[in-house]
Amino acid sequence: MKKIEFDELQQSRRNQYGYQSFILLAMLIMIDSVLYGMGFIWMKHPTNTFIILLVGFTYFISRCVWGDALVGPKESPQKMTAKTIVIAMFAVTIGVLTMGYLIPHRNMVSSTDNDGFTMALVCGIMWAVIGVVYLIK
After folding, report:
1. 14 or 129, higher pLDDT
2. Dihedral Cα 6, 81, 68, 126, nearest 10 deg
3. DSSP string of 46-57, one letter each residue
4. What is the mean pLDDT of the chain?
5. How far apart are CA 33 and CA 46, in angstroms?
6. Cβ-defined contacts of 45-53 (< 8 Å, 24+)
7. Axis-axis angle for helices 45-66, 115-136 (nearest 10)
């Protein structure tokens, strides 16, 4: 696997965005724990933690894209443009397919909590956000 080399500015931005993502995750998990202790359960335990992790991952990737810290400076512009278009279209397609499949099949879920539907919906939204950020940038 080819190692991507980042310049110093990109490394510092990635470190900054990683730190911000970690603090965001810690705060969201702490808020979730406080709400759970107060009796407000918005989702069962493993699902809510996974959704909080997806929020943090989406934040990190979106910030890296906006800060030009996702790929190294040695990529050629033509190769980078083609790669960006493919990644963005793939992400948007996965997001749309996930949400498009789930919305009509929501009532077919046998359980009453719909955790699987919510998890897939959040994953679809995550992929769509990443794809849109790629396309905008």
Report:
1. 14
2. -110
3. HHHHHHHHHHHH
4. 80
5. 13
6. 47/115, 47/118, 47/119, 50/119, 51/118, 51/119, 51/122, 52/25, 52/28, 53/25
7. 0
Tokens 């849109």, located at residue: 132
Give me the helix-helix angle, 45-66 and 8-37, nearest 10°: 150
Residues constituting the chain: 137
Q: Which amino acid is at 39?
A: G
Tokens of 114: 């719909």
Residue type, position 27, single letter = M
Please report the sign of the dihedral spanned by the C-alpha atoms of residue 119, residue 49, residue 69, residue 129: positive
Closest CA to 75 of 67, 84, 87: 84
**Six token digits for residue 110:** 């046998």
Backbone torsions φ then ψ of 112, nearest 5 degrees: -95, -15
Q: Mean pLDDT: which of 11-15, 77-81, 126-130 is highest?
A: 11-15
Joined tokens for residue 75: 């990529």
